[in-house]
Amino acid sequence: MKLSGNTVLVTGCGMGIGALTAERLAKEGNDIIGVDIKLPLLKEIQNKVESLGRKFYLIFPEKIRGSSPNDCQIFCPRPLPAV
């Protein structure tokens, strides 16, 4: 598997393991799709990733209450290939 030149989806990107993962992946040459419910923290990670010369696509889910596990189909409408 290629470890750079990818676009990687990182959930919980605003802090902790998610933030560290996004930063590390960006340092390795990947663009990031960052998802988190804490917009200010997500913006901080966006700034870090973009300062490394990588693209950052921000996803801030506005509707949290009343959502279900099946809502992820909006982002992944078809099954992902096995690795």
Labels describing this entry:
single chain, 83 residues, alpha/beta, FAD/NAD(P)-binding domain, three-stranded parallel sheet, 2 helices, globular
Compact summary:
This protein has 2 helices and 3 strands; from the N terminus they run βαβαβ.
How would you describe this structure to a colleague?
By secondary structure, this protein is of the alpha/beta class. It has a domain at 7-61: FAD/NAD(P)-binding domain (3-Layer(bba) Sandwich), CATH 3.50.50. Helices cover 30% and strands 17% of the residues. It contains 2 helices and 3 strands, in the order E-H-E-H-E. The chain has helices spanning 16-27, 39-51, and strands at residues 7-11, 31-35, 56-59. Strands 1-2-3 form a 3-stranded parallel β-sheet, with helices on one face. Helix 1 packs parallel to helix 2. The longest helix has 13 residues, at 39-51. The model has no long low-confidence stretch (mean pLDDT 83).
